[in-house]
Design goal:
The protein contains ten helices and 20 strands. By secondary structure, it is an alpha+beta fold.
Length: 350
């Protein structure tokens, strides 16, 4: 994708987007509603026409081709199965359009139903299937024609939480088994982190950051990415020397090389904050007052105000089994540690 631009009236949906996808890669477009991710997917599919820019697939310019002339399969959020056709006919729909022989596409339908874990269901109708099963059939139909590109438009958002987790694992394993290049749109950070080879974070029609899930999570390029991908703490501080900063009364060491007197922003994930013994006054530790404690099952999210420092409250995440013998109560004081190796300065705004 080279310089893609798309406007709807005065609204800029895509603002000069450049993006390459490797063969066999699972790439996830992630961002809030209205950020341009679905418009980008629909432009790739030929369902929207870009105002400027080019799309090349395998070196072939498909920028102005109609959808039927492009080499892709697509799965929508709403499944988009034909209710009057049975499962076998739905899966074979694309094969029919290519005038494949009846025996050949019957064999292909059997292969695809086996691949998605629903063998023998070809005579059922969509209304007889669960939401997860319908999405599997939609996936089988998209892959039946052996497309060079698979497009997934929020394929899991209509499912319940348990089915979403189960199906996202199955889709990822299936994609790896088939080896098809895949682009998926989602606004769910957990889905993106668990499924993607690479994540593209978008906002206001522009790409904010592209990278592996671990890099996006641990090394966000700007505050938007940091806030959108999970929870976190933005800490502003002034460098005292090459390795220490002052956070309005809280002195911390970090492993980055700093310029004395310069202002920096650090981003610290809640799970990076450690819970210490009250008397364990080690480096980068401080006493903090518990403002709030939310029990969330496997962990508790604790809001803390460091003593003697004029910094915004910090959010820390502690494993629930670790807290079993030392309950945390609102108003109590605990000692926390902010590891120096996790304090990396964020890039300056461009």
């Amino acid at each position: 994708m080279q310089g893609l631009r798309k406007q709807f009236g005065a609204f800029v949906a895509l603002d000069d987007v450049d993006l390459g996808v490797e063969r066999g890669e699972f790439l996830v477009l992630l961002g809030p509603s209205g950020c341009g991710k679905t418009t980008l997917l629909r432009t790739l599919a030929g369902l929207e026409r870009q105002d400027a820019g080019r799309i090349l697939q395998e070196g072939r310019d498909i920028s102005r081709l109609p959808p039927a002339a492009r080499d892709y399969g697509i799965v929508f959020q709403s499944y988009a199965l034909f209710p009057n056709l049975n499962v076998g006919q739905n899966v074979a729909y694309g094969l029919n359009s290519r005038r494949a022989g009846r025996e050949a596409f019957r064999q292909r339908v059997d292969e695809m139903l086996l691949l998605v874990g629903l063998p023998g269901s070809e005579n059922k109708y969509p209304a007889q299937l669960s939401g997860g099963q319908q999405q599997r059939i939609a996936l089988a139909r998209a892959l039946a024609t052996r497309p060079g590109l698979l497009l997934l438009d929020e394929p899991l958002s209509a499912l319940d939480a348990i089915e979403r987790v189960r199906l996202r694992t199955e889709i990822r394993k299936l994609q790896q088994a088939v080896g098809v290049t895949t682009l998926m749109v989602t606004h769910d950070q957990e889905e993106a982190l668990s499924m993607a080879d690479r994540i593209v974070v978008m906002q206001s029609g522009r790409i904010q950051q592209t990278g592996a899930p671990q890099d996006i999570y641990h090394q966000p390029s700007n505050p938007f990415v940091a806030d959108f991908i999970g929870r976190g703490n933005l800490i502003e501080a002034t460098a005292i020397d090459a390795g220490h900063v002052d956070c309005q009364g809280l002195r911390l060491r970090c492993q980055a090389t700093l310029q004395p007197g310069r202002r920096y922003r650090f981003y610290l994930r809640p799970e990076a904050i450690s819970l210490l013994d009250v008397l364990d006054a080690v480096e980068n530790s401080t006493l903090a007052t518990v403002e709030r404690c939310e029990f969330l099952g496997a962990y508790s999210l604790v809001t803390l105000s460091p003593l003697g420092a004029k910094v915004p409250p910090l959010q820390a995440q502690f494993a629930s089994n670790y807290l079993a013998g030392r309950p945390i109560r609102v108003g109590s004081q605990i000692r926390i540690g902010l590891p120096a190796e996790r304090l990396q300065p964020m890039p300056e705004p461009s």
